[in-house]
Structure formats: structure tokens, C-alpha cells
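Supplementary Note 3. Input sequence used for the single-chain structure prediction.
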Amino acid sequence: MFRTLRPAIFALDPERAHNLTIAALRTGLVPAAAPDDPILRTRLAAMDLPNPIGLAAGFDKDVMVPDAMLRLGFGFVECGSVTPRPQDGNPKPRLFRLPEDSAVINRMGFNNQGLEHAVVRLKARAGRPGIVGINLGANKDSEDRTADYVTGMRAAAALASYVTVNISSPNTPGLRALQDGAALGDLIARVVEARGDIAVPIFVKVAPDLEKDDFTTISRAALDGGIDGLIVSNTTISRPALRSNLGAEIGGLSGAPLAPLALAALQQFAAATGGALPLIAAGGIASGADAYARIRAGASAVQLYSALVFAGPGLVQRIKVDLAALLRRDGFASVAEAMGR
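The predicted structure, written as C-alpha cells, is reproduced below.
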């Protein structure tokens, strides 16, 4: 069905098409995915996942359709990014499809309805099954961006399955500076303190555009500070060779061209952490083989988003079927057994 509808969808402005997709999902008329193959069951930072395929942040910014996405077959869903105060984000147009490259460029700028709205939505689904995390961002005009993450942690820690601290979006000027040594150490200390006694995992989402020493610095700060895992990685500001004439648009590049860079970053973090910290792989994952390669490189789980733009929701089930087949082909009895192998 998606192949039939794709030309009509691609005739629409990308952001309008996305908003219509969210509206359609909110109707609740979402077919249930087939039961997951038992070989895909795994654990991520003390969370039991029916499968290791997650929805990355950015698709459901305002916690509108997490249960619909779980129903489509995702093993976990990450909503956001959410900022303490609502903000409109950057001027439109700010989202661009690059079909020739199976890629997307966005400069959304953390557009969202704010933390209060997200909290209401999380409370509304309290008690429902499924792993739903929340991705925290900082307001563009905030004088203390670390304080924004503390505010988000205090509000969401008791409501979300996990909390992600997103300090790697390229579309909020200066945000990536929080990945630097002392700033990152202070940020981690403050958000861990804000979590208090609530047993909710905290992940930090990092950029793929890092210098060699950054991998060790970030890994050490995460391990020493009590972070539960890293998401590797966000979009890239680099521009590998692209065929589309939209390749020069400003913003973060995701999709297929990001895959080599994201995989290399994952390998660097796997080496720097020595397997002592769960890693979630993101960036350019579009097949079971892609997911399998990231798991073999050290990821506990994977996330995707951009690939859905080009392949549709049926992609999730295809990835799971292919991943299960690859695990069995190589003699692994579980995802955990293949991790880092």
C-alpha cells in the first residue's frame, strides 16, 4: 500500500506529509504487527524489549502516537525532543527529502508544544505496556541550557521508561558544546542528581561529528557520571557526496549517507567503553543487515526514522524478520549473544 501511496505523499511538502501521518496514526486505525520472534527478545539498561528495533526521536515530538508506533512493531519508542517551554522551531521550509540519496536534511530546531504538554500525554498512557522514552532538549533562548535538562528530568523521570539527554542536535546554535569535557561532566552530574531515587535509565545522545579524543572523553564522563547508555548518533553536519540538488541545504543530514559515519562512531564508542556501557545505534539503518551490523559492532539495540520516509511502516517487520534470520544463520541464540561479536 505504501508503494502505491508514495507518489502522492512525496508530492506534499515533507512537513505537511509528516503532520498528516501523525493525524492518521491518532485515529487508532493501525494494524497490529505479527508477534515478535522470541530470538529478538533482549534487555537494554534493565529494560526488557520484545525486539531491539526502536523508533528514534523526532518522529513523535509531542508524545501523540507512541502506542500506535508500538503496535506497528517497534520494540521501543522515543518521543521528543521536548523543551521546557513550547517553541516554534526554525523558519519553514526546514525539512527536505533527498530521494536520490535515501536521505533527509532537517533544521527543525526543536519545534514542540513544551514539557507541560508532554507530561500530560505521558500521564495519559500511564499503566499501558510498552517501552516509551522521552528525549529532552533545551530552549534556543535559554540562558542555562543545563538547567533545561534538569527541569525536563524532574518532570519526566517518573513517567517515562527512560530519558534521553539530547546534546547533539546541530539545529540549536551552541548546543553541541555541551559534549565538551567539563560542560558534559557538569550536565551529567546535574541530571543524575535530578533523577534522584527514581529508577529510570538516562541515555545521552551524541553527534557523529567528533574528534578522535572526544570518544574517550565522552565515554569516561558517561561511565564516571552514572549514565546508563549512549545513543550513537544524531544527524551529521558533514556532507558526503550527495546526488540531490538539495544537498547544500543547512541542517542535519540523516538516512543512508549517514550510515558509514554513524557505524564508525559506534565502533569508536564500543572500543572506548569496553562494553561497560549500553550503546544504542542510530543513523542510516534501513534493513535487517544494517541492524545486525550495528549489533555485531557493539550495539544493544538500534533506532531508525529516516528510512521510514522512503520504505514506509512495513519496513519495521521486514527488519525484524531479516534480523532473526541472520542471527540463526550465524548460530546465535539471542541478540545479546551477537552483540560485539
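The chain has one domain: 2-338. Residues 314-329 form the longest helix (16 residues).
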